[in-house]
Amino acid sequence: MQSAPLAINGGKPLSSEPVLIHKPMITEEDIQAVTEAIRSTFVSGDGPACREFEKQLSAYLGVKHVLFLNSCTTALDLAFMIKDFPAGSEVIVPNFTYTSTALGPILNNMKIVLADVRPDNGNLDVQKLESYITEKTVAICPVDYAGNPAEMDEINALARKYGLYVVQDSAQSIGSKYKGLYTGNQADVSTFSFHGTKNMTTGEGGAIVTNDDTLGDLIKVMREKGTDKYSFLTDNVTRGYYEYVNKGNSYVQSNINGAMGVTQLARLNAMNAIRKEIAEFYLSELTGIEGLDFLRVTEGADSNWHLFGILVPAEKKYWIMDALRAEGVMCNVHYTPLHRNRYYKDLGTDEDFPGSMQFFNQLLRLPIYPSLTQGEREIVAEAVRKVFSQM
């Protein structure tokens, strides 16, 4: 039996309404919490809802210090600000990541060294990692791409060998586990994002977490313009004022966003469970298609399935993407390697990053989010089968 013509070739699309690549899951609980926060008139930063969110997230992750911020980008900035490394010190950053990972050290007058990634999942290639370490290296900044934790045992072993600081960019991995512990427990400092595209959202927002008391105290000061306002509000040991005790910036988050963090966190495991169901459906429906492969999950990790990626023939990648979109499935490319962007173009060539380029040349992202209906999931799978059957 002949397959129906592809929509890209003039055939009828599988869906007249596009299956979106992402949609945040916002409920009446979130709306009510935000409304109550606004009505309380405490709408500025570090309010009661923010403190409650930090307390609950700390308990959830099992870490000592959680500070709610206005983005993961500022969390990465703070992660290096609190260390005050000498200007020009080197930080190893994966070549395949969002610019924020690199901006953390850059904003603190440090030099980034781009490192190659695994071609099967986009995470740091730990087999190559030691080759990037020099006498100027002070830190490694691994990324949990797609919610799949980096190989932190190997990374931490190298960090201990060379006395390096580890900042884990866990922007995408809230609720993922590595060796039985939630991400946030594996590095000196970890950073999370609650952007509207993430597994849980506060609209815009992020968090920086650590089990180090000294670093935790510094974060409290530096995220609030270098003041001791955090302890002033908590302990109230002075008579109506707080002091300027260090450098810093304004990275606290609004109490309105904190209220949404509380309600979103309460549903995080349930939302991640739905993502897992969708991922398992795709794996079941798409396994065995010639020319299609899946991202490798790190050994010992449980992914939160922030993204669902497929690896396709490089020479057909953009045609496959256009063909799926024509069928009504809004798949997309997710990141271009840093060295291919104007700001980072002097940090290497395609030949320097074979794993990164192989991954980039094959990667497409399919829709995955909790409100994706069963019918939409089936359309995605059917569209992929239809397109691959006529390549």
Give a structural overview.
Helices cover 36% and strands 13% of the residues. It is built from 13 helices and 13 strands. It has helices spanning 28-39, 48-61, 72-81, 99-106, 126-129, 152-162, 213-222, 229-235, 255-266, 268-286, 317-326, 354-362, 374-389; strands at 65-69, 90-94, 111-115, 137-140, 165-169, 177-178, 181-182, 189-193, 206-210, 293-294, 301-302, 308-311, 363-366. The strands form 3 sheets. A 7-stranded mixed beta sheet has the order 1-9-8-5-4-2-3, with helices on both faces. Strands 7-6-11 form a 3-stranded antiparallel beta sheet, with no helix packed on it. Strand 4, helix 6 (152-162) and strand 5 form a beta-alpha-beta unit. Helix 1 (28-39) runs antiparallel to helix 9, helix 2 (48-61) packs parallel to helix 9 and helix 10 runs parallel beside helix 13. The radius of gyration is 22 Å and the shape is globular. It starts with 27 loop residues before the first helix and ends with a helix.
